[in-house]
From TrEMBL:
Record's keyword terms, sorted: DNA-binding
Biological classification of the source: Bacteria, Bacillati, Actinomycetota, Actinomycetes, Pseudonocardiales
Entry annotated with the keyword GTP-binding: no
Protein name: TetR/AcrR family transcriptional regulator
Species whose genome carries this gene: Pseudonocardia ailaonensis
Keyword set includes Disulfide bond: no
UniProt DNA-binding residue ranges: 38-57
Residue ranges constituting the HTH tetR-type domain according to the UniProt record: 15-75
Origin superkingdom: Bacteria
Gene3D superfamilies in the cross-refs: Tetracycline Repressor, domain 2
Length: 213
C-alpha cells in the first residue's frame, strides 16, 4: 500500500473506502443499533477518516438508507428466483431459515429494526423499510399467482405478515419460530390454491413429502 492510499494514523482511504464503510455499518448497525453507532466508531472500524466517510455519504441518514438497500436489493432472490422449485415450494421456502440454536440471539430483521429506531416516517431509511416490506408481499403474491391462488395479493399479505411475525418472535424469545410459521404457511397456501377437479384428497402433486405419507 502506498502512502497516498493511507489516511490519518495509517488508515486506508480512497480505494475501497465506500465498501469498507458499508461493511462496518452492516456489522455495527445490526449488532448494536443505529442510534448507538456513532460516526467515530464506524470510521474506526472501516479504517477511514471522517472526512472520507462524508465524501461518500453526506449524512449518516444517507448511510443508513444505503445500508438497508445493500441487504437485499433484489428482495429474496434466493427464494423467489429459484427455477428448481415450483411456485408453491417457493412460497414455503421463504420460511426455511437456519435455526437459531447457536446460543447467540438472532439479529432482528434490519428493516423492522430501522423502523423501530427511526420514528420519522419521512426519514429515507423509514421510507425504504416500507418499500421493502411492500416488495416482499408483492414477491409472495407473484409466486401465489403462479401457483394458482384465487386471491394472490391476499395470500401474499398473509405470508409477509407471518414471515415478519416469525422473525420478531425468534428474536424476542431467542428460539426458532420458523418451523411453526412454515407449518402455518403450508395451511394458508393449500387453502388458497384450488385443487384440480377430481383431486379432493391426498397430498398435492408438487408436495415434496407426498411419498412419505
Amino acid at each position: 500500500m502506498t502512502e497516498l492510499e493511507k489516511g490519518p494514523q495509517g488508515r486506508r482511504r480512497g480505494r475501497g473506502a465506500r465498501e469498507r464503510i458499508l461493511g462496518a455499518s452492516l456489522q455495527l448497525f445490526r449488532d448494536q443499533g443505529i442510534h448507538r453507532t456513532g460516526m467515530d466508531q464506524l470510521c474506526e472500524v472501516a479504517q477511514v477518516s471522517k472526512r472520507t466517510a462524508y465524501q461518500h455519504f453526506t449524512t449518516k441518514d444517507e448511510l443508513v438508507a444505503e445500508y438497508l438497500r445493500r441487504f437485499d436489493p433484489d428482495v429474496m432472490p434466493g427464494v423467489f428466483d429459484r427455477a428448481d422449485l415450483t411456485p408453491r415450494e417457493r412460497l414455503l421456502a421463504a420460511f426455511e431459515v437456519p435455526a437459531a440454536g447457536s446460543g447467540d440471539t438472532p439479529p432482528m430483521c434490519p428493516y423492522i429494526a430501522a423502523a423501530v429506531e427511526i420514528h420519522d416516517p419521512d426519514h429515507p431509511a423509514s421510507r425504504y423499510a416500507r418499500d421493502y416490506k411492500r416488495a416482499v408481499a408483492v414477491r409472495f403474491a407473484g409466486a401465489a399467482r403462479e401457483a394458482g391462488a384465487t386471491d394472490p395479493e391476499g395470500l401474499g399479505e398473509q405470508l409477509a405478515l407471518l414471515l415478519d411475525g416469525a422473525a420478531a418472535r425468534t428474536r424476542v424469545l431467542d428460539a426458532d419460530a420458523f418451523p411453526t410459521a412454515a407449518a402455518i404457511a403450508a395451511v394458508l397456501v393449500d387453502a388458497a390454491i384450488p385443487r384440480p377437479a377430481g383431486d379432493d384428497a391426498g397430498p398435492r402433486a408438487d408436495d415434496p413429502d407426498r411419498t412419505a405419507r
